[in-house]
Write the C-alpha cells for this entry.
Amino acid sequence: MIPAPPRPRFVLRGGTIHDPLHDRDGVVDDLWIDDGTIVPRPAITAGFAVVDASGLVVMPGGVDLHSHIAGPKVNLGRQMTPSGQGHGAVPTIGATGCLYAALGYTTVFDAAIATGAARLAHLELEDLPILDKGIYLLAGDDRRVIEAAARGDDGALQRLIASAIDAGRGWAVKVANPGGNLFWRYGRRGDHHDLDTPLPGLTLSPRGLLDRLATVIDALGLPHPLHVHTANLGLPGNWRTLEETMRTFEGRRAHLAHVQFHSYTGGGLDEDSFGSGVEQLADRFNGQPGLTLDVGQVLFGDTVAMTGDSEAAAHLAHATGVPWACHDQHLAGGCGVMPIRYREKSLIHAWQWAIGLEWYLRLADPWRAALSTDHPNGAHFLAYPLLMKLLGDEPFRREAFARIHPAVRNRSPLGGLTREYSLQELCIITRAAPARIAGLPHKGHLGPGADADVVLYRPDADLARMFAVPARVYKGGELVAEDGEIRARPRGAVMAALPTPT
Amino acid sequence: MSEPRSVSLSTHAPIAPAGPPAGATVCTACALLCDDGVVHRVEGRFERLCGRGADAFRRAAAATCPAATIDGRPAAVAAAIATAAGRLGGARRVLVTGLNDVTIEGVTAACDVAETLGAALSPAGENARHPGGPTIARWGEITAAWEELRDRADLVIFWGHDPAGSQPRFVERFVAPPLPHPRRTIAVGTTPLCDPPSSDHAHLLLDDDDDDVDLARLLLASILDRPRGTVSPRLEVAAAALREAIDTARCVAFVTGRPDPHGLSRCGVIEIVRALSRRLPAFEIPLDAPPLAPNAAGAALALTWRYGTAAGALRAVAGGAATIPPSRPVDALGLVTAGGVDAILVVGRLPPRLDDLIRGQIDPRGVIRIAPAIPDGAGDGVFLRCRELFDETGTLLRADGRTVELAGGADDSLPSAVALLAAIHQQLVATTAPGPEGGTA
C-alpha cells in the first residue's frame, strides 16, 4: 500500500483565536499545523510555511450533529424537489459536501438511518466529499430490540444494539417516536400516545423503552448518548411529552433532538391555544446536566420536511394536503417526506420560529446545545449564518420579530429576551459543544492533537455575512475552501463506533 | 472532557455483505432479484427459479467470447482498456449509458468516468424518459416493502398490471403465500391475470387500458363521498365492487406498473391510496421496472444522489452541478437520436431499440462496451468482458427500496465491471491534463 503523502506543515500567524475548550476568547496567537493535526509550537520551525491570519477570526471547523444528508428519505426529498443545479432544498451529495465546507463546516452526522438502509447510506456517503461523517442508526425502533426491552433482557438488548452498530457502521443510536410505529401497525391510527401508554401487545411503554435504551447505550460505551426524537412531534400540547421525556432521563445522559418541534402548548383544534412551552422546559433542562439538545430551528422559506417518524409526517401531510411521499409507514425505518413553506405570517410557523429562538436564549449553558435547523426540516443548513445573526444581534432579531404573525408578537416571550450570543458562544454552539456532545475529542477545538479542521473568518458586524463566506477553510490541514470557492476535495473519513458490551 | 471508549475513525472499511443463503444465488434475470433460488451449476439444475431466470443462467454458462476485442479482433484486456480510454478521451461528446444491470458500485464507478470526461450520463431504458421525480414531486406516493404486502395486505388490487410478464415470480413469492385470514385479489384491466393468485379472485374488465383513469376518479369520489361524474355502467359496477372490497379489508395494496406515459393512471392510484391511508393501512407497490433491468432502482438512486435526478446528467460534474433540469428530461435514446454523441460507453446490456439506434447513429469505433457477452452484430469498437451480474460482489436495489447483496459467484475468472471502469478511469485521469483546481461551491 502506498503511504499517503504528508500533509503540509504551516503556521497560521497572528489570527484572533476562539477556542472555547481552552478558554481562548479572541486571543491573538499562532496556530501550528503539521500533517493534518494541530501541534504545539515546535522547537524547530523551519519547514513550516507561514500563512498570515492577522485580522482574521480563527475557529475550529463546524460540526453539525443533527442533519439529514443521505439515505432513502433524503433521496425521496431530492426527487420531490428536483433542482437543475443540484443546490435545491436537498442538495446532491457532492454539493452537500462542498456547500458545508464552503460554509466552514467540516464534520456532519446524518441523524436517522434505518439499520436496513445503512449499507446504502454508506455507499452514498462515499460520494460526500471533504467532510468527516457518520450516521445515527434507528436501531431503537427494531421489533427485536423492542421485544428484548419488553422482556427486560438487557443482555440481549446490548447484543442487538451492538450488532446493529457494528453491521451498520453507526456512530450512535437514535430513537424516533419510541415504539410509535407499533401503534399504527396494529390499527390504532391517529392515536397519538403519551410516554406511559403500553405499546400494543406488550407491557412496555415508550418511557420504558427510552429508559432501557439509554441504559444499554451507556453500557456499550458509545461516544454519543441515546439520541431521542420523542413522541408527539409537531402536535399542540406536546411540551408535556418532552418534559416527561426529560424526567425519564433524570440522573442520566441523553440527547434531545430538535426540541423546537416538541415544545408547543395548546391542544385540540383551537389554534389560539398554540404557544410556547419553552420556559418550563428550559428550566427543567437547565437543571438536568446529563441532557444535551439540538433545537431544529425553523427559518422562513421553502424547504422539505423529512422524518423517520412517518406517523408525524402522515399527520402533517393530511393536515396540509401537500404532496407526500411515504415509504413503509408502519415499519421500523419507515419515512415520510413532503415539501413545506414556512411563512412569517403563518401563526403556526411564526410560533415555531419564535419557540426555536427562545430555546437558544433560555439555555444556561451553551456547552449543552448544538445549533441546528434539523436540515432540511426547519431550514437549509445554508441558513445557519442567518440563525447566528438572529442569536448574536438583538436589534436584528427585534426587526425580524416585528414582521411575524401579530398574535405571536403579542404572546411570545421572545420579545422580552434581550440576550445576545457572543462570538465565543456562537463558536461553542456550532463546533465546540456539538463536537463534545457527539463524542469527538479530536474536533471542535484548536488544542494540540486536534484535527486541523480550522476556519478563518473576516470579522464583520453583520454576523450573517461574516459566517456565510469564510476566508479560508482547512480540513485536516488541507485548504478546501477559500472565499466560497472549493480548492480541494479530500474524501473525508467515515466515523464508526466500536461498541464494547460490558 | 471524558474520552469515549473504543472509538475508531475508519475510512471506507467494507461492510460484510449479507448475501443469499448457502447454495443459493441471487437471480438477476429481472428486477425481482429472487434470492431464494438455488442453482446447481454443474448439473445445470435449478430450484425455485422461473423460466426466465433459468434461461439466463443457462445462457451465461454457454456464453463464449474473448475477454476483450478491439474493432472485432481479440485483444489483451490491458490494450483494450487503453484503447477505450484513448477513444473516450479523444471524443468530443461522450454518452455513458446502460447502468441498469450493474451493481450500485458499478454505477458510481461509471459516474466517475463520466465526470472525468464531462460526459452525458443516462441509464438505458424506457423508464429513463419518465423518471420518477416529477411524478413524485407532483403527487407524492405511499409505498411499502413487498414483504409488507405478503405479510399484511388482505386485499391486493392489480391495477392494470400483471406482474407475470415483468417479474414472473412476484405473485408466487408475495401474493400467493397465505395470511392468517383470507386474502382477496382483484385485477383491474383489459386482460385477466395469467395466474390468479387466490381462490377469492375477481377480474374487473375494462374496455380500454386508459379506462382505469376514469375508474380511479370514480373510486376516489366514492371514498371521499364526493359527487361523481357520468361514466359507463361497467365502470360504475367496477367502482362499486372495489369499494365493497375495500370496506371489508384490513390492509389494501395496489400493484401498479402499466405503461403510463402521462402519469395519469399512477396519479389516480396515488390519490386513492392517500385517501384510504387516513382510515386503514394502504399502500402502492409500483412495479414499473423494465424486465431486463435488475438494478434499475439502484441506478436511479445512485444518479439521484449524484445529480439530483434519476435521469442522469447532461454533463456529469462532481458536486452535482449541471444536472438535467427536470423540465428537460433527456435520456440515452434522445441523445443518440439527436446525433449529439460521437462516442459511447455502454455498461451492461442495452434494450434492443437503443442498441439498434447506436449501430445506426454512432461511428462503431467510438462504441465501448463493458458487458458479460458481446451483443449480436457488435463489430468495431472496444469490447471488455466482465462477469455476469450474479457473479459480482456488490449491492443491488429492489424497486421497493430493499438492498440485495451480491456475495460473488462461482466465476471470478473475469474482471468485475467495477474493476474495468476503475481501470479506464485511472487511464483517463492519468492522461487528462489537470484543469484549474476546484470550482464554485
Observations:
- The radius of gyration of chain A is 22 Å.
- The mean pLDDT of chain A is 93.
- Chain A touches chain B through 84 residues (CB under 8 Å).
- Chain A is about 35% helix and 25% strand.
